From TrEMBL:
Organism: Treponema medium ATCC 700293
Pfam family, one: VWA_2
Protein name according to UniProt: VWFA domain-containing protein
Start and end residues of each VWFA domain: 83-275
Record field: transmembrane: 6-25, 52-71, 299-317
SUPFAM superfamilies: vWA-like
Domain of life: Bacteria
Sorted UniProt keywords: Cell membrane, Membrane, Transmembrane, Transmembrane helix
């Protein structure tokens, strides 16, 4: 299966349509103006061939710009001991806009920023709304994690409320059983929990030597959101960042765990520094399968077809 690192560039393929339309219009005008000329049919045929070659060349150039990933190759890399599971709260309260554009959108950008700077660290993603769900298992294929992070929304799950305890439990279970060190869970939340109790899962984090980094999204002033009560009536509810509670969770988790507010200056760099330290004792040279970028092949094909288009026009010019 072919994947793309920058799929946005595939939109440039659409430019082929207006280019072909212009060529067809020119051909029509040539037919009307030089219908009696003996060479007109040969010229039109040359235009069609050149347009076809250049269109295929543009197609390959657009694909090359999108950085296609096709096939795998075995490479030798030094893998850091750290494996990171991002547990993101996607409950309704995360849509409050007390930080721009809102808590969840800020969290999505924050998580993507961290993942993009952890190229040699296995990452996974857990979503939390109602119960926790393992969206992406631990993997060195960060594109799948980034894609999942970009599409996070409260509408991804139908369950109501937020069960941070269950989300942290699912994150813990995502690590391989034989992995003893270098395990980190990054919890992105505003601290609102309607179901469960985080302190119940923290003893397992201490026992299994798992670091818990809690990133708070929102402000203590907070904002409001509209929810349905038990009578299915729309009511306005206030939601604020539960900073003191989240700090207490981090203190109880031990193992180098800490809390930080996403709004703090340099917070992402501090989290990144903690994640990249890894476990020095477990760093090893390992053989891993990595997707192969096919940019060179696609660029070469684009140049080939552009040259064929030029040659088609040049050959015709010599004959004339």
């Amino acid at each position: 299966m072919i994947e793309f690192e920058k799929p946005f560039f595939l939109l440039f393929i659409i430019a082929i349509l207006p280019a072909c339309a212009v060529t067809l219009y020119r051909i029509k005008k040539l037919k009307e103006s030089y219908a009696a000329a003996g060479e007109i049919h040969a010229i039109i045929r040359t235009l069609r061939i050149r347009t076809a070659f250049w269109s295929i060349g543009w197609l390959f150039l657009s694909i090359a710009a999108a950085v296609p990933l096709w096939g795998t190759k075995q490479t030798t890399v030094v893998k850091h001991g750290n494996a990171v599971i991002f547990a993101v709260d996607i409950s309704r309260s995360m849509t409050v806009a007390d930080i721009a554009p809102n808590r969840l959108e800020f969290a999505k950008r924050y998580v993507s920023f961290l993942i993009e700077r952890l190229p040699e660290t296995a990452c996974g993603l857990v979503t939390i709304k109602g119960l926790g769900t393992l969206a992406v298992p631990l993997s060195f294929n960060h594109q799948s994690v980034l894609t999942a992070a970009e599409t996070l929304s409260p509408f991804n799950a139908t369950s109501a409320g937020s069960n941070l305890e269950h989300g942290l439990r699912i994150a813990l279970e995502a690590f391989p059983e034989n992995r003893l060190t270098g395990k980190t869970v990054v919890l992105c939340t505003d601290g609102g929990e309607t179901i469960g109790s985080v302190p119940r899962i923290l003893p397992r984090y201490r026992q299994e030597n798992v670091q818990l980094i809690i990133i708070g999204f929102g402000t203590e002033t907070g904002g409001t959101l509209s929810i349905l009560n038990e009578k299915h009536e729309s009511v306005v509810q206030k939601s604020a960042l539960e900073e003191s509670i989240l700090k207490r969770y981090a203190e109880q988790a031990l193992n180098g765990s800490f809390y930080i507010s996403a709004a703090d200056l340099g917070s992402a760099q501090k989290v990144l520094q903690s994640l990249t330290e890894g476990d020095a004792e477990s760093e090893k040279i390992r053989y891993v399968q990595k997707p192969v970028r096919r940019t060179f092949e696609c660029t070469a094909m684009a140049l080939l077809f552009f040259c064929l288009g030029l040659c088609a026009g040049g050959i015709r010019a010599k004959k004339m």
